[in-house]
Design brief:
single chain, mainly alpha, 2 domains, coiled coil, signal
């Protein structure tokens, strides 16, 4: 409770009564900032996980609703993308070899 409030206030630029001059206040401030950063990282990881799960669920739903001709068309589109990516990579490798010479 109080430490979370302190971390929030410190993140907004609040200073201790001694203006962070003493070792104890500096240590508490560093701990509060680290705690806040860890909370942000955990929250961002949770949001990313939820978004990934939603994306997977959406893709699964699309596949379940897909008819066979649609499936074949999607499969061909993905194969074309893969082939295009391979050609792009080969072109990049070829250009980098020319630059090395």
């Amino acid at each position: 409770g109080n430490l979370d409030l302190a971390a929030f206030l410190v993140s907004r630029g609040a200073l201790c009564a001694c203006v962070s001059a003493c070792t104890k206040c500096r240590l508490q401030r560093k701990q509060a900032v680290r705690r806040l950063e860890k909370q942000k990282l955990r929250r961002n990881a949770e949001v990313a996980k939820v978004e990934e799960e939603e994306r997977k669920q959406h893709e699964k739903q699309e596949l379940e609703n897909m008819q066979f001709p649609d499936f074949i068309a999607e499969l061909r589109r993905v194969e074309q993308e893969i082939e295009y990516d391979k050609r792009l990579q080969l072109d990049r490798n070829d250009c980098s070899r020319r630059a090395d010479v």
